[in-house]
Structure formats: structure tokens, C-alpha cells
Amino acid sequence: MCAQACEALPTEMARSNKKKKSEKQKEEGHARRLLRRFLKEAHAQARREESWWERFKLWVWRGWLYALAWAAEATWEKLLGVFALVVAALVIAFLLPQEKSPRYGLEHTVDVESPDFLPSITGATGASSTDGNKVEVLTNGARFYPSMLDAINGAQHSVTLEAFIFWGGETGRKFADALVQKARAGVPVKLLLDSVGSSRYKNFSVIRQLEEGGCRIGWYHPIKFLFLNRFDNRTHREILIVDGRVGFTGGAGVADQWAGDAEDAEHWRDTQVRVEGPAVSTLQTAFSLKWLETTDELVSGPAYFPAVSTAGPLSVQTILSEPETRSSPARILYFLSIMSARKTILIANPYFIPDDAAIRLLRDARRRGVEVKIMVAGDNNDHTAARRNSSRLYGELLDVGVEVYEYDRTMMHHKYMVCDGVWSTIGTINFDNLSFALNDEDNVCVYDRDFAAQLTQMFERDTAACNKIDLEKWRNRGLMTRAVEWFSFLFKRVT
Fold first, then answer.
1. Helix 169-184 vs helix 204-212: angle between axes, to the nearest 10 degrees?
2. Cα separations (Å) of 471 from 371, 379, 391?
3. What residue ranges do the domains of the chain occupy?
4. Which helix (H) or strand (E) holds 423?
5. Nearest CA to 131 among 310, 318, 333?
6. How far apart are CA 455 and CA 271, in angstroms?
7. Pure H helices in 245-379
8. At the fourth CATH level, which superfamily is domain 141-260+278-311?
9. Exposure of 143 by Cβ count < 10 A (0-12 exposed, 13-18 middle, 19+ buried)?
10. How many CB atoms lie within 10 A of CB 58?
11. Which residues on neighbouring strands pair with residue 431, listed in sequence order?
12. What mean pLDDT do residues 350-379 have?
């Protein structure tokens, strides 16, 4: 009888546990049903409310109910998953490089036309001037792509290319065909491609064509756990150098959206410069240092760094910017130029998201009588968050008389600035945190009135395709636009 009781004990315990579990599940099921009913009632009441404030409060309450409903149904696996995501986010945020914008020394002390201006640019950015250069402005893919392909086809000693975007499609195949032809002819061809912007998985066929054709490809900063501290440091440079004698840079990568002549929304507005002379060596330096970092191969010798003779009358400074110093040469270049302007500032930039210090500099420039005009990408834009991060800041600039233009014919993607009709800079640098603090960038700077006049005329022609922003209209923009701007502000650091 004792044996029978011992055998029955585990069975009774199992039944008891099962009963308790069943009762607990009933209680949890009842709680979930109550939460769902509350959610349904809150949703219905929100729809009936006429006051937008009451609707907003009900939607907030509904969000809390959703959170409670999720918590009621949460398992240990879900909770551990959320915890792991939070920890990963904190680790990444801790490891990422932080931007550092100058706070002091931003007073106007040197004029652009003063003999002290260029030494200040050189000293603050580390970019020295090189004389004897020729710089040609090439507008839109209809002009710069043929020029770039002609240079590649004429290569005799080397071709190096550093790009954030190198995509497939018709344009990518044209470049791949030209590069492979040179590689098979015995010319060393090296491509340094950003591992995110030009991902192999997006462009498998063209990448395979390049590799099988004898071109060497280095992938800049592939995403790896051990390198989370630099995963958002991309090479945003768009550089092509042929034989160390001819260089191209500007806003355009290699992709179909840059083909054409900005005639419609499918063909972007952009500008490249073609550089000949000693200044090409600095662009090659930019490539060679990143190539060494990526592949462990040293690039040297006359095939890449030849003795270059004078090609033109221009003195050029090439700004090479990296995130290591946080207050990067890119930021310093723009800040010093704005601080030193006395007459005019023209800025054309698709992603214009100035920080507080930059807004202060632009407002100070207006107060000392400088005419300031800014052109940004309008509704035709490949980055909604960046656009709305920009538009939310218009008021502080419009309020002091800064003129803001939105280019609407197509996506405007070039990046240049002209100060006082004599100092110009053009290249890959956007007026935002990514370019100023996180990415590798390059800009060509020229101190010359004729060159500045070309960019000024280009700016004036482009205003015909722009919508000039009115302060009163901006103040009366819709609630939905303001909400999107507020939401975009949450991503300010990565747009």
C-alpha cells in the first residue's frame, strides 16, 4: 500500500502543477483580452474625438497599452533579445567617433582677399598650395563621363579609382569594360570601393567582371564586429587618377543616375572637375594611403607619382579630410571660408544640415553685410531624412536675410562654395555631420577670379530650376511636415 501511495504521489503533483498552470494561463488570457479590449476602445474613441489634442493623448495612451500587451505576452527569449539589442546599441554608440565642432575663435579676423587668408587655410587644414595646375569644370554626366572614359582609354602606366558608389547598369558596364581592357593590356588598375556604398552583393556581375578581367579591388571598411568603432566611417571620395597626371573628383560616383544632362528626375544634376598638374599628386596620395590601409600594399613609383610639369596657371589646395581628429579639415575649410567672407557666399550642397556653430557663422556673415545664398536639393531628393533635417533649419537663416533655394528639376548632387568671387572649393564634402565628422572626403580649392566666375555663373543658371524659400510660407508649413522634420532630427547624426 505504501508503494502504491508513492507511485500515486508524482501523478498527483503533476496534476496539481498542470491545474495551476492552466489557471495561470486563464488569468494571462483574461489579461490579454482586457488589454485588447482597451486597445480597441482607445482606437475607436480616438477616431471619434474632434480635438487633435485629445486624439494625440489617446494615441499616446494606445501606445502604452500596446507596450503592456507586448509585455504580457513576452517570453524570456523576447526579453533577452530586446536586452541584447539595447546592449549592442550602447556599445556601438560608445565606440563611434564623436563629432567636435569649434566653439571659440570663430570671429571674423581675416578677409578672403587678404594675403593672410591662404596661409590660414594652409595652417588650419594642413593642405599646402601647389602651383601650375589646370582645372576644368565638367557639368553633368553628359560631359564628365566621356572625359573620364577617354582618360582611362588613354592610360599607359596606371589607373586608380576610389569610389563610394560604383554600381552596375549601363554606366557601370562602360567603366568596367574600359578598366578591364586596360588591365588586360598590362596597365595596373586598382579600385578602392566602399564596402557599403558599392557592396559586392548589390553589384555582383560588374564586380566579377572587374576581378576576372585583372583589376585589383580593395574593399574599404567592411562591416565586422571587431571594427564597430569605424563601421560608419566610409570613403565618400569619388576620385579617378590616370598615370598620376590627370585626376577627376566631384560629387558623382559611377551609376546610371548620373548619366545624361539633368534633363529629368531620372538624371541627376552634378559637377566634376578635371585636374592636370602637380595637384594630381595630392589626389593620388589620398588614394594610396587608403589603399595601403585596406590592402597592405604600398603604392609608389613613377607610374603613380611621376614628375609632373606645369599644366596651367592655377594654384590649387586639395583638402583631404578624415574623421580621426573629429574637427576635420572639411569642417575647418567651410568654417574659415565663411568667417573670412566680406561680400558674397554661394553654397550649393544637396545635404545642408549645419550645426549651431555653422548657423551662427552664417548669421554673423549676414550681419556684417555679406550676401549669402544657399542652394539645396528640393523635392527630388534621394534622402528624405536629410532633406527634412535641412528644411527645419531654414527659419534661423531666412530670418536674417539668407536666401535659400531648393533645386527641383531633378536631384541636385554637386557640392561647391564660392566666397567673394575669388575663392572656390568643389568636391565630395557635404555640409553635414557625415562629411564633417565621419567620412573620408576630398575637395579641390582654387583661388582665382575666372574659376570662381564659372561656378558663380553655374549657380545663377541653376536658380532658374529652383524654388526660392519664403520665410512666411516656411513658418506656415503643415503639421505633417513639422512632424517629419522632428522625426528626422532623431537621426541628425547619421544624415
1. 10
2. 17, 18, 11
3. 24-95, 101-128+317-495, 141-260+278-311
4. strand 423-427
5. 310
6. 10
7. 280-295, 329-340, 356-367
8. Endonuclease Chain A (3.30.870.10)
9. middle
10. 19
11. 352
12. 96
Q: Which amino acid is at 411?
A: M
Which residues have CB under 8 Å from 120's CB, separation 6+? 110, 336, 340
75 backbone dihedrals φ, ψ, rounded to 5°: -110, 170
Which residue in the block uniquely carries the three cell numbers 533579445? 81
* Model-wide pTM > 0.85: no
Q: According to the CATH classification, is domain 101-128+317-495 in 3.30.870.10? A: yes
Residue the block writes with cell 613609383? 301
Q: What is the pLDDT of residues 384-414, one digit of tens each?
A: 888 888 999 999 999 999 999 999 999 999 9
Residue with cell 558623382: 252
pLDDT at 252: 97
Q: 390 is written with which cell numbers?
A: 535641412
Identify the sign of the CA torsion 275, 248, 297, 177: negative
170 vs 430: CA distance, rounded Å: 27
Cα(219)–Cα(443) distance, integer angstroms: 22
d(CA 244, CA 158): 7
Q: Is the Cβ–Cβ distance between 166 and 172 less than 8 Å?
A: yes
pLDDT value at residue 287: 97
Q: Which residues contact 319 (CB under 8 A, 6 or more apart)?
A: 125, 127, 329, 330, 333, 425, 427, 429, 441, 442, 443, 444, 445
Distance CA 68, CA 98 (A): 35
Average pLDDT, the chain: 86
Residue pLDDT, tens place only, 167-180: 999 999 999 999 99
Detail the DSSP E strand segments found in 140-209: 159-163, 189-194
The strand pair at 189-194 and 371-377 is best described as: unpaired
How far is it, in rounded angstroms, from Cα 110 to Cα 116? 7
The model's confidence at residue 21, banded by pLDDT at 50, 70 and 90, is: very low
Q: What cell was used for 189?
A: 588598375
Rounded distance between C-alpha atoms, residue 127 and residue 119, angstroms: 10
Instruction: Give me 481's grid cell.
Output: 511636415
Q: Confirm if 442 and 286 have CB atoms less than 8 A apart.
A: yes
- Which stretches within 96-160 are classed as H helix? 117-125, 141-153
Is 55's pLDDT higher than 50?
yes
